[in-house]
Amino acid sequence: MLSGKSGSQPTITSVLAKRVCDDRRAEGITQRICNMVEKDMMPISTVDSEGFRELINFLEPGYRIPSRGTITTRIEARFNESKAELKTQLATTNVALTTDCWSALTTESYITVTCHYIEQNWQVKSAVLLTESMSVRHTADNLAEKLNQSMESWGLTGRVIACVHDNARNIVSAKNPTRMLGVLELRDEYWQLIEDVAPVLAALKCTTTVMSAETEVSISNAYPITFSLINTHLMRVQGDSSKVAEFKSKVRTSLATMLDPRHKHLGFLTPTRRIPGNSILLELAVAEDVSSTTDEASRTRQRRREGDTGRCGSPGSRASETHFCYGSTAG
Which helix (H) or strand (E) holds 193? Predict the structure, then answer.
């Protein structure tokens, strides 16, 4: 029979305090702390912060929080394991590299090299191979040295099919005297022009984003995207200003494409757009042919006149001896 005594219920803190944190659970917590530091890119000193220690002591009072040095050692070991695994994946495949130089908030310069490759299951993957401080000038020789060091470190020498960079934006900007702070105040018509061109630029931005996606193969999208741009976004519509219409026209080069033997039939265009192009090109060809025929006839008549003059007036000619020529009688 239950006793009638009513004792106070235990608190959560007292229950947790009695639970022992065994080695298996302690190892799991340590691994997740390392995951947090890695995935959230948090400073390792987080494990020494007062708030973090209060949180862990509340959730797991029996857990002994590792020191900053222990977390550093574990993260370095995980890095070496991941690097060895990535090296194995890259050992039998060609890769493409992208590189960029950037500056932190402390104005310290860095270089990052990213590798892009395709796995055996046709999945497009990318991985950061290098992020290092650039204490030297960002010259071509120094950047090439960093790239070569990165390729040698990862065993990629001879298997890099392309290296894409931002065209040395920082160097180009340094040579450009016009910076953002020096731009003159825009006039009202320029603001209107920006507003009119913005929708067209938005379509081009979307196209650039799709073609630059890391995890999607872009070569198969080239024709559909180009067709969509030419047929929809770059079509001149009622209400387009002269500047917008001119901008669209410069992108659409149907006649130049038709002159290419590979695309002379313009099969990817609709008849309403293909026929005018054919007509214009035919008119130009006929005009050129007529001009050539007229010039040839003019040259023929000129040669005949020169020949007739020679027969009539050249000394010692047979016409001179018989005293007659075209259009004249003997004296």
Answer: helix 188-211
Q: Give yes or no: residues 258 and 236 share one domain.
A: no
Which parts of the chain sit beneath pLDDT 70?
A: 1-8, 10-19, 166-184, 211, 213-220, 222-223, 226-233, 250-270, 273-274, 276-278, 280-331
Tell me the whole-structure pTM to 2 decimals: 0.45
Q: Please give the single-letter amino acid code of residue 199.
A: P
| pLDDT tens digits for range 210-226 | 767 656 666 667 667 76
Question: 78 burial class (0-12, 13-18, 19+ CB within 10 angstroms)?
Answer: middle
Q: Do 247 and 269 belong together in one domain? A: no
Domain boundary among 21, 53, 83: 83
Residue 155 · residue 87 · CB < 8 Å = yes
Total count of domains within the chain? 4
Side chain identity at 29, as an amino acid letter? I
Residue 292: domain span? 253-307
**Is 327 within the bounds of a domain?**
no
